[in-house]
């Protein structure tokens, strides 16, 4: 692989950095709210599943 000069490297870095897309404030807030809602939803869902499995295991153990 050919060596790249420091000036060429910096030029390439600037060219790549100019391609970066930064989301707007509105997009960031909307995404953050969505993540928060999904986190709460999944927490409640897994709490329910865990509770059901716990009840099932307790019922199985009571049969012994």
TrEMBL record:
It comes from Novosphingobium fluoreni. Pfam families: SecE. PROSITE patterns: SECE_SEC61G. Keywords: Cell membrane, Membrane, Protein transport, Translocation, Transmembrane, Transmembrane helix, Transport. Belongs to the SecE/SEC61-gamma family. The keyword Transport applies. Gene3D superfamilies: Preprotein translocase secy subunit (1.20.5.1030). One of its GO terms (cellular component) is plasma membrane. This is Protein translocase subunit SecE. It is a single-pass membrane protein. NCBIfam families: secE_bact. GO terms for molecular function: protein transmembrane transporter activity. Component of the Sec protein translocase complex. Heterotrimer consisting of SecY, SecE and SecG subunits. The heterotrimers can form oligomers, although 1 heterotrimer is thought to be able to translocate proteins. Interacts with the ribosome. Interacts with SecDF, and other proteins may be involved. Interacts with SecA. GO terms for biological process: intracellular protein transmembrane transport; protein secretion; protein targeting; protein transport by the Sec complex. It comes from the Bacteria. It is found in: Cell membrane; Membrane. The chain crosses the membrane at residues 33-61. Essential subunit of the Sec protein translocation channel SecYEG. Clamps together the 2 halves of SecY. May contact the channel plug during translocation.
